[in-house]
Amino acid sequence: MMIKALYIHIPFCLAKCKYCDFNSYPLSVFERTRKRLAEAYLAALRQEILLLLKDISLDEIETIYMGGGTPTILDTDQLVSFMEFLKSQLNFSRIQEATIEANPGTVSLEKLLALKGAGFNRISIGIQSLDNWMLGFMGRTHNAEEAAAAVSMARETGWENINVDLIYGLPNQSTAMWEDTLAKVMQLNPDHVSSYGLKLENNTPWGRDYSNRQITLPEDEAVYKMYESLQRILKDNGYIHYEISNYCKTQKTSKHNSIYWQNEYYLGAGIGAASFYNSQRFYNVKDIDLYMDSLAKGLRPLEEAIDLTLEEQMSETMFMKLRLLSGMNILDFKNRFGISPIDKYYDGIKKLVDLGLIHIQRDAIRLTEKGIPLANLVFMEFV
Ligand code: SF4
After folding, report:
1. Domain-embedded: residue 319
2. Within a domain: residue 191?
3. Which of 7, 91, 212, 306 has the highest local Cβ count within 10 Å?
4. Where does 154-221 show beta strands of DSSP type E?
5. How far is CA 76 from the centre of its chain?
6. pLDDT tens digits, one per residue of 280-337
7. Mutate to test the pocket of ligand 1, among 22, 141, 163 (most ligand atoms within 8 A of CB)
8. Which residues does a 6 A CB cutoff place in the pocket of ligand 1?
């Protein structure tokens, strides 16, 4: 298999949100310090990509995804010149999708026009909620009006593939509040919606507040109702539910994320970025100083390389592909691993079919409606 996707991690944000467990840092508010650190990081990223290209072919790359963090915290000229660098190194005629993540309050009409002109053709905007009280409580640096304005500006500047990210199951969130956010999002008419239930990690402010009983989360039943509202409202508005947490208008699936869900090869650059190729997983160091020091010495900033056994690759392929509602194509699995997934996981599959969580339809194994919100139980059968 060839590497099909390139991920580039920009770890800077305006401030740290209270639930955030991503590898991201608040960037200095001081213009000169901010610019200098960003320049140094981008130089290291270029260095890493050049180093990777010495050993690895990126000729078959179909998607690029610049995520974070908040890539749009960088200056327009920095982002445009980084894209120019990528164009000089990669075969852009094959690139079908180039996504940039953005947060409201860090985009303007000029910046959006320039990014589109530079070659990005998909934008993923972190809205999360359209309730001003909730946004403040979450520690977001924007309000609902700025979030709506970011989507409108993207449309105005000609972006034809706009994703919005949403979170539900938030502390103090009622189903009515969530439905209000969904109704407002529908008015913005994005092409794609990614919506995740909140998962709290202990190392975040909210994780600690939860352990100390300073915040409470909605009961499971209430979260399930929010999931049902999400399903209903998006389907009523013409969205196709194609992955556990992702919905799109026709032809607007995320091609980049689909490569992950198909468990195909991808390369990641930047701090903490993961890669998967040659049956190995690679993880970059998470620390920005270690990352830059390593590249300054001409070394790949790797923290870990893990050889995956055939067993592990089969199991990962099963649960990644089951995330997609198109499911695990039986013949694809057989062609890749030389065995039918039904023969390989007979007992687990039988148990899940009996529980009504998956079904085997024509050529594929798929989650049922009942199995989608219980997908983690399903995946455990294949680990
Ligand atoms: S904007 Fe995103 S990456 Fe940055 S702190 Fe908030 S949740 Fe984390």
Report:
1. no
2. yes
3. 7
4. 162-168, 192-197
5. 22
6. 999 999 999 999 999 999 999 999 999 999 999 999 999 999 999 999 999 999 999 9
7. 22
8. 13, 16-17, 20, 22, 24, 68-70, 103, 126
Domain boundary among 243, 261, 279: 261
- Check whether residue 51 and residue 190 sit in a common domain: yes
What is the reported pTM? Answer: 0.96
Strand order across the 358-361 sheet:
328-329, 364-367, 358-361
Residue 316 lies in a domain: no
Rg (CA), the chain: 21
The token pair that represents 88 in the structure block: 């000089």
Structural domain boundaries enclosing 373: 328-380
Provide DSSP, 252-306.
---HHHHHHHTT--EEEESTT-EEEETTEEEEE-S-HHHHHHHHHTT---EEEEE
Closest-lying ligand 1 atom to the alpha carbon of residue 21? 8
- Distance, in Å, from the CA atom of 364 to the CA atom of 328, rounded to the nearest integer, reads 5
Count structural domains, the chain: 2
Q: What is d(CA 64, CA 266) in angstroms, rounded to the nearest whole number?
A: 10
Q: Rounded distance, CA 283 to CA 194, Å?
A: 25
